[in-house]
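User: I'm putting together notes for a lab meeting next week and I want to include a structural view of one of the chains we've been expressing. I don't have a solved structure, so I'd like a prediction I can at least talk through. The sequence is below, exactly as it appears in our construct file.
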Amino acid sequence: MTERSFFDQVGDAPHEEFAKLCKLMDKIEFKDQKAAFNEPVDVREFLPKEEDDDTFFTYDGSLTTPPLLESVTWIVFQKTMRLSQDQVRKMSPNNCSKGRLTTFLSFF
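Assistant: Thanks for the context. Below is the predicted structure for the 108-residue chain, given as structure tokens.
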């Protein structure tokens, strides 16, 4: 399994493609609940642009949730992804009350 990770940087404007994910997170309240995208998501918008510094680091690691299998190659991009304060808040552990899911969706 391969996972891609990004460091985020808080900005004033929301990340347009990430906003589509945030809309879905508002609909998912409990474990195993599902929601479908109503509009296409361009996953390329989550990757560094060709003209940007596309430096990345890899390491062997594990899943971050049980069963914590050590079968993941993590790819961490050096370039930050700018998110609005509200988008960062949606992903924060403090927003994880009453079984609400705030786990980043793995869509690659």
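A couple of points you could mention at the meeting. The chain has one domain: 2-95. Residues 24 and 83 are 16 Å apart (CA to CA).

User: Perfect, that's what I needed.
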